Amino acid sequence: MSLTFYTNPMSRGRIARWMLEETGAAYETRYLRYGPEMSSADYTAVNPMRKVPAIVHDGKVLTECAAICLYLADAFPKADLAPPLDARADYYRWMLFAAGPWEAASTNRSLNVEVSPETSGMVGYGDFDRTLDALLSAVPDEGYLLGPKFSALDVYMGSQISWGSQFGSIPKTLRVEAYLERLQSRRGYIRASELDDAAMATYGPAG
Q1: FRET partner for 82 with CA separation of 20 to 30 A, picked from 16, 22, 25, 131?
Q2: Where are the domains of the chain?
Q3: CATH architecture for the domain at 85-186
Q4: Residue 73: which of 179, 161, 182, 146 has the closest Cα?
């Protein structure tokens, strides 16, 4: 079994790193700097978008963080990071909500792109406030997004909630902060953060 992880510590690769640490799988990390390294012919052959993260597992290429999280949960079932097949409705719903409507709405908000009421029907998320309300409705009072068990959904959507809270697109309510404390106390999260923080000196903006 071979598993190679392409990333930069200042990227969404932090999500994939956390997911990898939760699986307990052995993997090789290849850091790429922004610019020529991500645009090299070798890496473009892995990901034509010339972005990180990406993983290559036994010759299979995965890009896009949500896809990586879904794939790794299935590829390493002993980690128990996905619900049973007959209980995945909310799992798929919220994973793709975070990857689609929330990602688009929060990115547009950060770029000061406002959708008018007249054109809201043309975008998948409608408007920012509606999307935020939907996301907040999924944050649990206790436990995790799917109930008492942690899952790959908490890695992906939890990361989106963490970043949104950090950068101001998601309010820091008591419920949000308590949920994030539960996530960030996990050994997988702590280990992933330590690895990426240590790499910042070499591969971050000043590296």
Answers
A1: 131
A2: 3-80+188-203, 85-186
A3: Up-down Bundle (1.20)
A4: 146
Overall residue count recorded for the chain in this entry: 207
DSSP string, 28-70: EEEE--TTTTTTSHHHHHH-TT--S-EEEETTEEEESHHHHHH
What is the average per-residue pLDDT within 93-103?
A: 97
Q: Token pair of 97, please?
A: 């909500």
Pairing between strand 60-63 and 28-31?
unpaired
Q: Does residue 206 carry a pLDDT above 80?
A: no
**Is CATH 3.40.30.10 what the domain over 3-80+188-203 is classified as, yes or no?**
yes
* Tokens found for residue 34: 């922004």
Q: Nearest-5° angle of CA 206, CA 159, CA 39? A: 45
pLDDT at 62: 98
- Strand 28-31 relative to strand 3-7, pairing: parallel
